[in-house]
Write a structure and sequence with these properties.
Blueprint lengths: L1 H6 L6 E6 L6 H4 L2 H18 E7 L5 H11 L2 H4 L2 E3 L8 H7 L8
Parallel strand pairs: 1-2, 2-3
Length: 106
């Protein structure tokens, strides 16, 4: 806590991966109420603690959704987001640069 106060920013952060392969399915849309409920909490702590967010296997409809969120998102948060396609070769190398191999699924 003291080191964090001295430096003026969070010392711990995380890498988040959103796999949107089934995002538009009923199971994927089932997460919406959770995010609505906790949006105010994420708004306060998420941008500072986020190291990088990968959004992978993005369906074509995501572009419309992304334009909405991108318009209201702080610039500092936008810089931390990496939107990647369906092919693992579009994101796997970047995963390996940031994560230990044992945490990357086959």
């Amino acid at each position: 806590h003291e080191r964090m106060m001295e430096r003026g920013h969070c010392l711990t952060n995380f890498i988040e991966v959103w796999d949107l392969y089934h995002a538009l399915s009923p199971a994927g849309l089932g997460a919406v109420p959770f995010y609505k409920k906790y949006a105010s909490v994420f708004d306060k702590v998420y941008p500072e603690r986020l190291r990088v967010c990968f959004i992978i296997r993005v369906p074509w409809a995501w572009n419309t959704v992304w334009r909405f969120f991108e318009a209201i998102m702080p610039a500092a948060t936008k810089k931390k987001i990496r939107i990647k396609g369906c092919r693992a070769d579009s994101w796997l190398e970047e995963f390996r640069a940031l994560l230990p191999d044992e945490s990357i699924p086959d």
